[in-house]
């Protein structure tokens, strides 16, 4: 954020483009020393008003503000045991009849169930695969996305929002560790600490069979589950993308790809 955007008067030459630490503290109504302790993690019990003031000064959106507040919330220690994660029967039946590419992903973007039209869009959209690993580590998956840089930024921000502050989860540790070792792009994006709600957005795909198409991706929370999301792709009616999706559907008879319960932490 530039100083002018926060109402800070600029005089002389500045070595930093954004707000200085003491300027953030002043605008938030706290001391510079206290803000430094917050930055360094030496004060682990900031009050809610302090966090809200810092979020206001930094102009964080709702998702980033919630994430900031969650970081300071006390977390009870508990033993983490893998659990069997299964997709509700009604959602599995919906995948069979929806007539659009659709799949269910878990909290850590593991694909739990998918129909064959979703798998026709990408072979990685099938149970047992993880979308984060596919997008960052599979060259064929990367080739599907003409806007790979922008799409991966959104993906990582949504992943951080989905995981929240539960960073001691073994599945989380495994995924982030593997991605950090193998992908420079992921390391850079993860270090930004961007947080974004997982909302629907247009997605461009360069499909090897039907060519380029633009699809809208909608994400719907699955009730009664621990963070499962139903993801559905659809095209604007009357567009070339809609025609290409119809061609793809004709080559991929609609049915559900086998969905077995999987162990998650």
Automatic annotation (TrEMBL):
Q: Which Pfam families match?
A: HTH_31, MLTR_LBD
Cross-referenced SMART domains: HTH_XRE (SM00530)
**Gene Ontology molecular function:** DNA binding
The family database entries (Gene3D superfamilies) matched by this protein are listed as:
3.30.450.180, lambda repressor-like DNA-binding domains
Q: Which domain of life is it from?
A: Bacteria
Supply the PROSITE patterns for this chain: HTH_CROC1 (PS50943)
- Domain HTH cro/C1-type: from-to ranges: 14-68
User: What name appears for this protein in its UniProt entry?
Assistant: Transcriptional regulator
